[in-house]
Amino acid sequence: MKTEKEKMIAGELYLSGGEDLKKERRKAKNLLHSLNVTEYRVTKKARLILAELIPNAGKNLYIEPPFFCDYGYNIICGDNVYFNVNCVVLDCSKVTIGSNVLFAPGVQLYTASHPMDIKSRRTHEFSKPITIGDDCWIGGNAIICPGVTIGNGCVIGAGSVVTKNIPDHSLAVGNPAKVIRKLNE
């Protein structure tokens, strides 16, 4: 029988209120408190906190506090990833971020979702992974919805809500985000 964590990562319905997941979220919240309140600046200690919070990051992960996530360990980053202030990553499933990716202020990545059925929604949730390719720029206050893949070399316009996959080297804008043109490689 699968644990609630195994179900969560597999994208199946799971109970988020289980003690194991509560404990892991509490650990992340304690690290985030240290990052966002105690340190608040990107110091040597802040980098150590980030290494513990997001152990699957490449070189030069830079997060400008405040930053928020559920677990941290489901965030996988390549090299040279930059998060500006007030970014949120609901990482119930894997969030895979390529190298040389820039997140403007207020970007939100949501792997978490809820059933449409009222009774199921009262107790359960599920998640779908998000993938962002190399060399992307995600504009301010953009929202990336569960299950979305953004290809390499993309730009997502400020305020966009990305509900569907975006192909490589595309400029996508709007709510819902639509590709308005291809970009030079």
Tags for this model:
single chain; alpha/beta; seven-stranded mixed beta sheet; globular
Through-space gap between termini: 47 Å
The biggest sheet amounts to:
7 strands, mixed
Number of helices: 4
Residue share in helices?
Answer: 10-25%
The backbone outline, from C-alpha atoms, is globular
Total beta strand runs:
19
Strands side by side in the biggest sheet: 2-5-8-13-16-18-19
Low-confidence stretches: none
Mean pLDDT: 96
Strand content: 25-35%
Cα radius of gyration in angstroms:
16 Å
Class from secondary-structure proportions? alpha/beta
Order of helices and strands: HHHEEEEEEEEEEHEEEEEEEEE
What do you see in this structure?
This protein is of the alpha/beta class. It contains 4 helices and 19 strands. The protein has helices spanning 4-10, 19-39, 44-53, 118-123, and strands at residues 56-57, 62-63, 67-69, 75-77, 81-83, 87-90, 95-97, 101-103, 108-110, 112-113, 126-127, 130-132, 137-138, 143-144, 149-150, 155-156, 161-162, 170-173, 178-182. The protein has a 7-stranded mixed beta sheet, with no helix packed on it. β18 (170-173) and β19 (178-182) form a beta hairpin. α2 (19-39) packs antiparallel against α3. The radius of gyration is 16 Å and the shape is globular. 33% of the residues are buried. The model has no long low-confidence stretch (mean pLDDT 96).
